[in-house]
Design brief:
single chain, alpha/beta, DNA polymerase, domain 1, Beta Polymerase, domain 2, Beta Polymerase, domain 3, seven-stranded parallel β-sheet, five-stranded mixed β-sheet, 24 helices, about 15% strand, globular
Length: about 575
């Protein structure tokens, strides 16, 4: 069931952390922020951990926080949070954790300008009052306005991962009715866009059962408002964790199912293009079927394949239906065989308790081997420049490598690869010596600083290091929070190909970086890609699903993704780069 209590509690703790920071209680702010991250990313419902007694053993969850979790499970609220909310302006509670703004900034504006509402804040940012405060300036004001703008946009959209969890809950709940014979989520969610607006669900049922299904759907406890209710379509506004989301349900007949799936999945441009082709053939396509215009006879509609075949096309995977050449490819029988989740052989971006991960390497390995059919994982903790993550220096990296060696010996196989996420410094040099990097199996080079400057030359210089395997989250964007830093991506692609460096598809729901446009460019240019979860918690490994979806949207096949290969093949890819650049080859 969807009611993701982990996320609800995490959101409250995040707000508590921000309020404590607003109140200058940094110690409690850090404790609640850490607890929020841990709870949100638990692989199971937090209630399970409470029932088994494991909740009090989780690193980062102290007795006081554990009791608050228990209170929320029993009562649906946390009394301390209700008290804290009264100590901060109501509007600020909404804004305290926005990047570029934050609690300390809001506190200064509140104390020095007496501003306590979002509208007043925006006005003061625009009329120069905030800029005149010591330590602010035009650039900070510009960033604050941009953060507010991104926030307003993000309120209207939902991240793909969250939309998938919500839709799974809705589908599971609707499937409890025996009258529901077929059900599918459609729209941009079926196309796996990185953010989603409304959620659209199609159902097949007999006419006499339609209103029973609609009564059941509109009666869900999350429904705040019923916009439309009828036997064919119902639309509701749901309150999900304090945010409003529109959900539409439509019911069709068996012989309309394929046509409805096609019609409500494709982008507008895809569907318009398809209808134009149909028209040229004397056909009409709508949500009920494909019809011969002259005779009015229905010639397809029961299956999606039948709909596409009727107008002379191969079936097109939902992720490709954006009118970016997929229709022409389907006409000419040259659609790619897209990468699938089952093709992934390992996750190559994983953080442990050596830096900012929530679990030890041994715990990670035990979990992955139990839940995933992987041949390898790479532990890639941060290098020393990332102080906030307790990044490792050369000595600590060597110590971690020894631990990995011991664990592999215990396993009796070379399952854990020795890796690092090394910082690309301001001048493009790396945060660790080549001597250490040469001993590692896998090196991710990432930008974590100077995010407003053009980082093209910096990344290219990092790719020229023979020991760099892949560039992590290449554009640096955070969906709804931070735009990509300025980059000449064509130059990045060229350098990646020339140096034999892979580019990462980072599957963290807020990153999804690279985007689908640049993935397709990489595919076309022959640049190798890696799909990684950037896991900091056990629950993060599941993000591989949306990373694969992003790759599929970029037309990537199994051959384009490095971690669909055996480790021996990956090693050959890495050694080819080392050899080309005259460096030590890894044995």
């Amino acid at each position: 069931m969807y009611r993701n209590i982990n996320k609800e509690i995490a959101n409250i703790f995040r707000k508590m952390a921000a309020i404590y920071e607003f109140l200058d209680d940094r110690f409690r702010a850090m404790a609640y922020q850490r607890a929020a991250n841990i709870i949100e990313d638990l692989p199971d419902d937090v209630r399970h951990y409470l029932e088994t007694g494991e909740l009090f053993k989780i690193r980062g969850i102290g007795p006081s926080i554990a009791l608050k979790i228990e209170e929320y499970i029993k009562t649906g609220k946390i009394s301390k949070y209700e008290e804290l909310k009264k100590l901060i302006p109501e509007d600020f509670l909404e804004l305290v954790d926005l990047p570029g703004i934050g609690p300390k900034t809001l506190k200064r504006i509140y104390d020095e300008l007496g501003i306590s509402t979002k509208e007043e804040l925006i006005k003061a940012l625009k009329d120069g009052r905030v800029e005149r405060l010591p330590g602010f300036g035009s650039k900070k004001v510009e960033n604050m306005l941009k953060a507010l703008q991104l926030y307003e946009v993000s309120k209207r959209r939902i991240l793909l991962w969250e939309a998938l969890q919500l839709s799974k809950y809705l589908v599971d709940k609707l499937n409890e009715l025996k009258e529901v014979r077929k059900i599918e989520v459609v729209g941009s969610l079926r196309r796996r866009k990185e953010t989603i607006g409304d959620i659209d669900i199609l159902i097949v049922s007999d006419d006499e059962h339609r209103m029973k299904i609609m009564d059941y759907f509109t009666g869900f406890p999350e429904v705040k408002e019923v916009l439309v209710k009828g036997p064919k379509k119902s639309s509701v506004i749901m309150d999900i964790e304090g945010k409003e989301r529109q959900v539409d349900v439509r019911i069709f007949k068996d012989d309309e199912w394929g046509a409805a799936l096609q019609y409500f999945t494709g982008s507008k441009q895809h569907n318009v293009h398809l209808r134009e082709i149909a028209k040229e053939k004397g056909l009409k396509v709508n949500e009920y079927g494909v019809y011969d215009v002259k005779t009015g006879k229905k010639i397809a509609g029961e299956t999606e394949e039948g709909v596409y075949n009727a107008v002379g096309l191969d079936w097109i995977p939902p992720e490709l239906r954006e009118d970016r050449g997929e229709i022409e490819a389907a006409m000419e029988h040259r659609l790619p065989e897209l990468v699938e989740l089952k093709d992934i052989k390992g996750d190559l971006h994983v953080h442990s308790t050596w830096t900012d991960g929530a679990y030890s390497i041994q715990q990670i390995v035990e979990y992955v081997r139990k839940h995933y059919n992987y041949e390898y994982i790479a532990i890639t903790d941060h290098s020393k420049a990332v102080r906030v993550a307790h990044g490792l220096d050369e000595e600590k990296i060597l110590q971690e490598m020894q631990e990995i060696k011991k664990l592999n010996k215990m396993l009796g196989l070379d399952f854990i690869k020795k890796g690092v996420e090394v910082d690309i410094l301001y001048d493009g040099s790396l945060d660790l010596s080549d001597e250490v990097l040469a001993e590692l199996d896998w090196v991710i080079a990432s930008v974590h600083s100077y995010l407003n400057q053009d980082n093209t030359d910096r990344i290219i210089k990092a790719m020229e290091n023979p020991y760099v395997s892949v560039i992590g989250h290449p554009t640096g964007r955070i969906l709804g929070q931070r735009d990509p830093y300025p980059l000449d991506m064509d130059a990045i692609m060229k350098a990646a190909k020339e140096t034999g460096t892979a580019l990462e598809i980072n599957a963290q729901p807020t990153r999804m970086d690279l985007n689908d446009i640049w993935i397709r460019k990489a595919v076309e240019e022959g640049v190798m890609l890696v799909i990684s979860t950037d896991s900091h918690n056990l629950g993060h490994f599941a993000y591989m699903e949306i990373g694969v979806a992003q790759a599929r949207r970029g037309w990537a096949t199994k051959e384009n993704i490095l971690n669909t290969r055996s480790w021996k093949e990956i090693q050959e890819f890495l050694n080819k780069k080392r050899k080309r650049l005259g460096a030590k080859v890894k044995r």
